[in-house]
Amino acid sequence: MAHDVVPWDGPEPLSGPLGVPLVDLLDRVLATGVVVSGDLVIAIADVPLVRVSLHALLSSVNERVPCPWSDGGPL
Amino acid sequence: MTTQHSDSRAASARPDEGVTYVFAVCRSTRATSAWNVTGVTGMPGGEAVRLLSSDLLTAVVQTVPGSDFTDTVWQRRLADRDEIERYARAHHSVVSAVAAHTAVVPLPLATLYHDDTRARQVLDHESDRFHAALKRIAHHAEWGVKVYEPSTPEPSQAHGESVLQPDGGRGAPAPGAGLAYLNRKRGVQVQREKRREQALAVADSVDAELRGLAAASRRLRTHGAALSGDQRVHVLNATYLVADGRADQVRLLVETLEERTGARIELSGPWVPYSFVGEA
Question: Which one has a higher pLDDT value, A34 or B49?
């Protein structure tokens, strides 16, 4: 790929990082794709933790509204 | 989802030391070595964002206070909407800044190593997996698609009348108030189930059509209406890995599907392919 060498404080053309709804962002940054794991255990990706702590925020893990598909979700 | 627990994992960092936070990994090129990352903010309380290179891969890293990145602190943080938002957005803005320049493998929020040496070791040991992921996502972006059930039709709608008396209506004497009530209740329930089935069918067909344009796809959990404050019923939360050249087709298809199905469909993107860097 041909990429110009430009400083990073330029405009950000990708991924609308500013206006993204938090819930959509969390769907993605909370370990939906993991290549490696870190040294320090921060149990963000653990479903029980997310269920408890992000309960009010991440209604995606609200058991009263279960995912209608068995093939799961990001967490 | 793969979450390997390596032997070197420790329970927590020594509180007085800095640890190495890794945002993303890309290929080492002459261009990456010339990058100026001084304008990138990074995690609250951290030092300057910088590059950490091994032979073939470069990680975008930051030294952050170990005391602020313990499991205990993060469990509290995860329960605090403002806090988690602050950190998630900080993470995302660094990842996006890198991705504006080259293909990157974003790492999950709060991926931490004891120090640079450990982080570099991981780059070397997992080099094949990073390269496979980079190859998979090069010239692709992630597009999120959310489908909502069409808003509730009025109960008095003509369409609903036929289900008000699903049985026993014909030839029977006019039902009493109690029976009428039960039938009405049942009718509402039947309608609701029918609407849900239809919405799920729409979700399936939307997903199938979008998969036709995508290199890969994932279904994420749907967001419940009760807690998100959004009263619409969310029936599809899917995300697609789409070649850059097909982005316009995706936009067009979503518009077409919205018109055809009458469902509310939201498209978000292009995202850095967060959902497609791990082995499926």
Answer: B49
Please tell me the distance in Å from A60's CA to the nearest CA on chain B: 4
- Whether the full predicted model's pTM is greater than 0.80, yes or no, is no
Q: Does the beta-carbon distance from A62 to B227 stay under 8 Å?
A: yes
Residue A17's pLDDT is 45
Please judge whether A12 and B69 are an interchain contact, meaning their C-beta atoms are less than 8 angstroms apart.
no
- Flag whether pLDDT at A62 surpasses 80: no
State the nearest Cα–Cα gap between B64 and chain A, in angstroms: 13
Query: Which residue in the block uniquely carries the two structure tokens 């100026």?
Result: B36
Domain that holds residue A36: 22-61
Same domain for B272 and B145?
A: yes
Say how many domains are in chain B: 2
Residues of B with Cβ-Cβ distance to A24 under 8 angstroms: 144, 146, 268
Whether A16 and B268 lie within 8 Å, measured CB to CB: yes
Other C-beta atoms closer than 10 Å to the C-beta of B168 total 10
Cα separation, B59 vs B104, in Å, equals 9
Residue of chain B whose alpha carbon sits nearest to that of A6: B35
Tens of pLDDT, residue by residue over B188-246, are 889 888 888 888 999 999 999 999 999 999 998 887 654 455 677 889 999 999 999 99
Is some CB atom of chain B closer than 8 A to the CB atom of A13? yes
Top-confidence residue, B11 or A19: A19
ipTM: 0.79
Q: Which of B81, B93, B108 sits opposite A34 (nearest CB)?
A: B108
- By three-state DSSP, how is residue B84 classified? helix
B215, amino acid identity: A
Give the domain CATH number at B197.
Answer: 3.30.70.260
Query: Cα–Cα distance between B57 and B29 in angstroms, integer?
Result: 8
Q: Chain A within 8 Å of B276 (Cβ-Cβ)? A: yes
Quick check: B89 pLDDT over 50?
yes
Task: List, in order, residues 6 or more apart from B248 with CB less than 8 Å away.
Answer: none
Label residue B16 exposed, middle or buried (CB < 10 Å: 0-12, 13-18, 19+): exposed
Give the domain range for residue B222.
141-154+191-276
Q: Is B280 on the interface with A (CB under 8 A)?
A: no
Domain presence at residue A17: no
Mean per-residue pLDDT, A26-52: 65
